[in-house]
From TrEMBL:
Protein name: Uncharacterized protein
Taxonomic lineage from the root: Eukaryota, Viridiplantae, Streptophyta, Embryophyta, Tracheophyta
One GO CC annotation: cytoplasm
Listed GO biological process terms: mRNA export from nucleus
């Protein structure tokens, strides 16, 4: 039998010379693209299935195997075993490690002359690493020697071998396309949610920074995992040859990833940009925040604001100085509380909320380039619509809008004597409130401010200011029980002085806090 005839017959079946087949989209020397429209099992739209068959060009094997899901090798009669073995191994070694492709040996030889075990032994198929070749099968184009079926070779045998090949082909990865920033935010919100459930005093700046950097690492790992799941660089580049306005091209555009989506030149710039978003550690010592002060609160506030400004400019290089000063001021007003315990004030920053703003600024680097979209393995608990809605809590708010008393307002309100600040009378003695007017500080344990401060629970942003406002209002109206008791005191001159101060302070609070009541 003539080798050219076997080769020509096989090519005529897989790569017709003319586009006279109903299911052939492209046919050219060394290439054919077949299509098949199938009914969706769940109903609805048809499913477009495309098969690309390429004839191996041993001069450019890397391009030949790009996007390959299976290998078919013609075992010819009249060619030495060693030559065919070397040719096959050269082809298989060009397959990327991890591809795990099936191999179909189409034998021109009769089974009587070369049974499957002989073919496997002569071609040394067991020597090929399973990371490239995970299974193989042998089909014979002739059932027995000198027998001719369908003109010369068996269509049925070839068809059965191709079905086996299709069934053994590894599945393509199921992907979803996401924006890099949204992917990071998806992981970041989960990590910050854990910190948000903790006592606000148990969370420091480096806890938030570690969570952010971990979210970046998780995002990079997901991108790398998707690329690793596609060692053959599916889909094959020949898909790009489809007619632009055809139904098949429309289906490819809607349902397949972009060509070369997993190649290093495509994903490395995105991964590098994500990695460049990492924050350095917060080096300034903030332990002094746990030491309260009765006179130096403003200096502590300025010190904390200076630490933030320094971190955003010199340490993280996030902002230029004017913007950093403005942002640090906004963060202080929105996310730092003033707490009182036993005549000492504590400034308590909510580091999670502070760094959420910083993270939003940093992640703007990932939206400057429209190419910062990536493919990840699809998650059953995550849809594209959910990713599109992912946002850090504070990013949806106005940058300079306050929904609760600012830090400055709380500091101003905190100067009132009825809140427990030591107030000296004319003789220099500390004023002691009457039992009916006991300050809130006496109800607070003396083990430090952190024991009573828990974001989102008992210690709200405005409770302590509201308390001062309500007590002043009761005193002014003259109807509360504590005030009636004070009127019975003998030191009426001190009471008059106290009430005058209260009225002045109340007017100031009414003006500052009227929007909240």
């Amino acid at each position: 039998m003539d080798q050219l005839n076997a080769k020509s017959w096989l090519l005529s079946k897989l790569m017709p010379a003319r586009e006279d087949e109903d299911d052939t989209l492209i046919t050219s020397p060394g290439l054919s693209v077949w299509r098949n429209w199938l009914l969706n099992e769940s109903g609805g739209d048809l499913i477009c299935c495309l098969s690309v068959i390429k004839y191996t060009n041993f001069e450019n094997l890397n391009e030949t195997v790009a996007g390959a899901n299976a290998v078919l090798f013609l075992l010819s009669e009249g060619i030495p075993w060693v030559l065919q073995k070397n040719q096959l191994h050269k082809l298989l070694m060009s397959v990327p490690s991890g591809s795990q492709l099936p191999l179909l040996i189409v034998s021109e030889l009769c089974k009587e002359n070369a049974d499957p075990s002989t073919i496997v032994k002569e071609l040394e198929l067991h020597e090929v690493h399973e990371s490239r070749l995970h299974s193989f099968s042998v089909v014979y184009l002739k059932n027995q020697q000198m027998e001719q079926l369908n003109g010369f070779f068996s269509d049925e045998q070839l068809r059965g071998g191709l079905k086996w090949l299709a069934n053994e082909s590894p599945p393509q990865p199921v992907l979803q396309c996401v924006k890099a920033r949204e992917l990071v935010l998806y992981h970041l919100n989960s990590l910050l949610g854990v910190l948000g459930e903790m006592n606000v005093c148990d969370v420091g700046p480096n806890n938030c920074i570690s969570a952010f950097n971990e979210a970046l690492d998780q995002s990079m790992r997901e991108i790398a995992a998707a690329a690793h799941a596609n060692p053959t660089c599916w889909p094959c580049p020949e898909i790009g040859l489809l007619e632009e306005h055809s139904h098949e091209h429309e289906a490819v555009t809607q349902h397949l990833p972009q060509l070369g989506w997993s190649l290093a030149p495509r994903i490395e710039p995105v991964v590098r940009a994500i990695s460049d978003c990492k924050f350095p550690s917060f080096l300034d010592d903030t332990s002094w925040l746990h030491r309260g002060s009765d006179v130096d609160v403003k200096n502590q506030i300025l010190q904390l604001q200076s630490c933030l400004t320094k971190y955003f400019t010199e340490i993280s290089k996030l902002m230029v100085l004017p913007l950093a000063e403005k942002e640090a001021s906004v963060m202080m007003q929105k996310f730092v509380q003033l707490q009182l315990q036993n005549s000492y004030y504590y400034i308590v920053p909510n580091w999670v909320m502070i760094f959420q703003r910083a993270f939003n600024w940093q992640l703007m680097k990932l939206v400057k380039d429209t190419s910062f979209s990536v493919y990840i393995l699809i998650k059953h608990d995550l849809s594209t619509s959910m990713l599109g809605a992912v946002e850090l809590e504070d990013s949806a708010q106005s940058h300079y809008h306050l929904s609760h008393p600012s830090l400055d307002e709380m500091v101003e309100a905190g100067r009132m004597p009825l809140l427990g600040c030591a107030m000296l009378d004319r003789e220099g003695r500390a004023f002691q409130p009457y039992p009916g007017m006991t300050s809130h500080s006496e109800e607070i344990p003396t083990t430090g401010a952190c024991n009573e401060i828990e974001h989102g629970k008992d210690a709200g942003h405005v409770e302590f200011v509201k308390a001062s406002y309500n007590r002043m209002k009761d005193l002014n109206e003259g109807e509360s029980e504590p005030l009636m008791t004070i009127k019975e005191m003998k030191e009426t001159d001190k009471l008059g002085e106290l009430l005058d101060r209260c009225k002045i302070k109340q007017n100031m609070i009414d003006k500052n806090l009227s929007v909240y009541f």
